[in-house]
Amino acid sequence: MTYSQELLMQLLDKERLTLNKAALKLGVSQAFLSKVKTGEKAFSEALALSLCDWLMLDEPVVLLRLRASKATSPRERSIWQKIERRLQDVD
């Protein structure tokens, strides 16, 4: 599951929204959210940040996880995981 999918599921569960209502609130099409739900598309950084307020998430962590979920190789994923651990150690 991609991080965009996780964010979408959190939004739908927390706000008890349908894809159509979530699309209206986010200002995107239902077709786009359907593609996010299936993993075909990902949220932009701007859209992910707008979800931070609704879901009460830490913005730097959201951006990091969003970018990390787009990693294409095991090495990239490993590096993003190291960055996340270091970020958590700083907090």
From TrEMBL:
Q: Which Gene3D superfamilies does this entry report, sorted A to Z?
A: lambda repressor-like DNA-binding domains
Top-rank taxon, per record: Bacteria
- Classification via CDD domains: HTH_XRE (cd00093)
Q: Name one GO molecular function term.
A: DNA binding
Q: What is this protein called?
A: HTH cro/C1-type domain-containing protein
Q: What is the scientific name of the source organism?
A: Idiomarina xiamenensis 10-D-4
